Amino acid sequence: MVRLSAVQRREMILVAAARAFSRGGYAGTSTDLVALEAGVSQPYVVRMFGSKADLFQEVFDRAARTLLNAFDEVLADPGQSASPRVWSRLSAVYDTMVGDREVLVVLLQGFSAAAGHHQIAAAARRFVASLYALLVERTGCEPERAREFIARGMLLNALLAMNAPGHVADDPALAALADCALGSCDFEDSDDTSPESGGPAGRNRSDLGIP
């Protein structure tokens, strides 16, 4: 059996913790559950990360970096960043994350836990501020547009956390909202709907869990 390095073991536990926290949230997930998910002992988790709050903050920061790095790649070319169509490409990042819901749901769990935990609240504020600064500084957009884009991401987080795509048959209004947020009402310019743009004409709604 290959012996993992300390760095590899730490990453393994963070991956397992992300799965556990995305399912149970901060309050509903103990270090015992994280240890069980990771296949290690609970004292080992505590020894490596300290408190549950410390562990969750690392999981949250890791999810935040994943999303910010993905946006940063889209905005790396200054010429492309100034293009109106950049918002379609940024929206496509969210669509990709829908397939790996843990990232978005962990972020939502962090926002929810922030109300009662100063440490987690500080991490959530840093992420939101970093995202806003990245959008405004790289695209040169007005604050309102950055706000709308971030708000769409928050809605996606909430819909995924409640598993709305899996229950669209329960309520026509829920189906319409899920379709708009996850499917046909992409955040983009109205004239940018070609398959190449990643707009509605090029979207496969079934890939997003929409029947």
Automatic annotation (TrEMBL):
Residues of the DNA-binding region: 30-49
Q: Which UniProt keywords apply?
A: DNA-binding, Transcription, Transcription regulation
Region (Disordered) spans which residues? Answer: 188-211
Can you say what this protein is called? Answer: TetR/AcrR family transcriptional regulator
- The residues covered by the HTH tetR-type domain are 7-67
Keyword field contains Metal-binding? no
- Could you tell me which InterPro entries the record lists for this protein? Homeodomain-like_sf (IPR009057), HTH-type_TetR-like_transc_reg (IPR050109), HTH_TetR (IPR001647)
Source organism (scientific name): Nocardia bovistercoris
Task: Please tell me whether the keyword DNA-binding is annotated for this protein.
Answer: yes
What's a Gene Ontology MF term here? transcription cis-regulatory region binding
